[in-house]
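Dear Dr. K.,

Following up on our conversation at the group meeting, I've run the structure prediction for Aspartokinase from Streptomyces cupreus. I'm pasting the input sequence below exactly as I used it, so you can double-check it against your construct before we proceed with anything downstream. Let me know if the numbering doesn't match what you have in your notebook.
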Amino acid sequence: MGLVVQKYGGSSVADAEGIKRVAKRIVEAKKNGHQVVVVVSAMGDTTDELIDLAEQVSPMPAGREFDMLLTAGERISMALLAMAIKNLGHEAQSFTGSQAGVITDSVHNKARIIDVTPGRIRDSVDEGNIAIVAGFQGVSQDKKDITTLGRGGSDTTAVALAAALDAEVCEIYTDVDGVFTADPRVVKKAKKIDWISFEDMLELASSGSKVLLHRCVEYARRYNIPIHVRSSFSGLQGTWVSSEPIEQGDKKVEQAIISGVAHDTSEAKITVVGVPDKPGEAAAIFRTISDAEINIDMIVQNVSAASTGLTDISFTLPKAEGRKAIDALEKNKHGIGFDSLRYDDQIGKISLVGAGMKTNPGVTADFFTALSDAGVNIELISTSEIRISVVTRADDVNEAVRAVHTAFGLDSDSDEAVVYGGTGR
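The predicted structure tokens came back this morning:
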């Protein structure tokens, strides 16, 4: 048996009973002959509580100290889990991100992994221990400061360790039974997907599906690490995410034409009004946004008015970055030459994802017909070979998701989807 990396989210280790249940599952994998490395998130809502505490003390906490605070949650989880495993008669050792060799850049609160040097982890498992690693954190390469990887970073930690340790699989344990055709909190008849390609999972993750972080899937695809998404609350088979279809019995799982419907209500829209329609203007706008270290999603430019030679450019970005983007653009208003800015944070994005879409010409028409029949107005449209995304009013998102899900025959015959912990992560 080879090495397996398991990751447990906050809802799986939310309390003492959850930690003991997770410990039993880990010990079971060890008894089955696997070497086991575990990555663990902070307990329940610990990270949110630490953020609230920091904001009470300082409205703008320094990045270095903020990271030092937030990593405490995972250290609590890893130590308690190691204790629970030892209580079951097996040896376990806990490691912080820096002790595990997770090396990052020096950007606090959203660091990226540069390298993983898991010498201590390898030595520990070779000695027969179960290694428990604090997720979501690492150490900067230059200053040796503690860093955090951003929300959901434990998934990325797990895949990065799996790649560095040449693991057979990275198992991501959440509070749902796998990846579903839509968010089970919104669509009760969502179906579990048995297998999905890295490419489709990347599109779902970037379009708002919260079961896997986009960076985690990106890392797994780069190093070809199979991911098995499953629930820590049940013994059911989950969803395999890999480059090639898996075998189930004597049958290969085929990919569906449509993989699923994702939605995201965490974005806002900025419209730059009255932009001169000439070369370099769009570059100036998005250079300003880039210099502010803000990621954007969808972009639409209107046809310029013949009488004025001016156009409007709209784009979406995370709500949390909205004020920062507005300030950056206003500061460079004369350099760009636009008239005004409009900000709208009451939007939602709905995305249809599937590799078979490019060979099925009726998909686009069916998608827009479903939205029309549901009375949903479309504000922006973006497409790729395997995705169609639209922006609508935030209030219309849930109804739009259910309408599209039903229109493409994705509804289960029964209420299959269960969210055991209430968050979908």
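Two things stood out to me. The first strand starts at residue 3 and ends at 8. The mean pLDDT is 91.

Best regards,
J.T.
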